[in-house]
Design goal:
The protein has 7 helices and 6 strands; from the N terminus they run βααβαβαβαβαβα. The chain is an alpha/beta fold. A 6-stranded parallel sheet has the order 3-2-1-4-5-6, with helices on both faces. 44% of the residues are buried.
Length: 210
């Protein structure tokens, strides 16, 4: 695992809206080749359409963007050993091109990625925001895959009392049915989790004081 605490949105008090509340951040979960490439066993057929919406949200967030990566660095003595035995194509060094960001995601954020060996990324995201004094910042959550790393991040965030808006059409599932099932589960967790779409999430990032 390479967790780089300096990574993430430009989340200083100077970024906060006029009412003193911290400005919302955009989090993009794992936009990597392994989850996006059509020839990958884990490639999502929904990724191109979802990424077009991620780009719109990133443009609106004006630098308040955090990108994560999943890396195959978990301890093989745990159940991750069986996991990688079931998916040997993914059992490669962390610097394999499979784990690179897709080219179109490399300029989403001016900051380094948060690199973790876990499906859920909330702990690292929360630590970063807290280290900047904006631990209560709302988050717009996007990425891939909806039915694995996105939902794992979202449910942990709900338990932590975070304020999360999931832009459903900026998330890509392993397939449309699994995407819909994960969105349905996340919709059961208001007020911590709010499921919406890109058009509705854009004003949160464009006008954080409203």
């Amino acid at each position: 695992m390479t967790e780089r605490p300096e990574a993430g949105p430009s989340a200083s008090r100077a970024d906060a809206p006029g009412n003193g509340a911290p400005a919302p951040a955009l989090v993009v979960i794992d936009p990597q080749n392994i989850f996006a490439a059509p020839d990958s066993a884990w490639g999502s057929p929904m990724f191109p359409a979802a990424f077009a919406n991620i780009r719109r949200l990133a443009d609106a967030a004006a630098g308040r963007v955090l990108v994560t990566r999943w890396l195959p660095t978990a301890d093989r003595r745990t159940s991750w050993g069986e996991y990688f035995a079931a998916w040997p194509f993914a059992d490669k060094p962390a610097d394999d091109p499979l784990y690179d960001l897709v080219p179109e995601a490399r300029d989403l954020s001016p900051h380094p990625t948060l690199d973790l060996p876990t499906f859920g990324k909330w702990g690292a995201i929360d630590r970063f925001l807290s280290s900047k004094g904006v631990g209560s910042a709302p988050v717009v959550l996007t990425g891939v895959s909806t039915d694995c790393c996105v939902i794992s991040t979202a449910l942990a965030a709900a338990d932590a009392g975070a304020r999360i808006t999931i832009a459903a059409d900026a998330c890509a599932g392993s397939d449309p049915a699994n995407h819909a099932a994960a969105i349905q589960v996340m919709s059961l967790y208001p007020p911590q989790l709010t499921v919406t779409d890109t058009d509705s999430a854009l004003p949160l990032l464009q006008n954080p004081a409203s």
